[in-house]
Amino acid sequence: MPTPQTVLAQGEAPIFGIGDRVRVAVRFPIGHFRVPNYIRGKRGAIVAVIEPAAVNNEEEGYGRNAGSERHYYRISLPMTELWPAYPKSSKDSLLIEVFETWLERI
Q1: CATH label of the domain that carries residue 32
Q2: Which of the chain's ends, N or C, has fewer CB atoms near its CB within 10 Å?
């Protein structure tokens, strides 16, 4: 745990915590990307912070990462959020890991 005098670099501490409500960003980058189209713009909640922090695979694929690390988060997306006509229980959800730069706090 950092002391009050410790200054963390960007990416060292997760910006989201368990229970935080998030939306997956809606972007359509050209080239390599790691977020499925069907979850973009969908809302869910953080259920786990993946440790340790990791490099951004999208940027790393192009050699643009320069060692910068951030966190992946396991998020729970209700099936009814993904498919409004989903016929099963509203408690059903999809668990998926998403990199920090794709998530927006709601």
Answers
A1: 2.30.30.50
A2: N
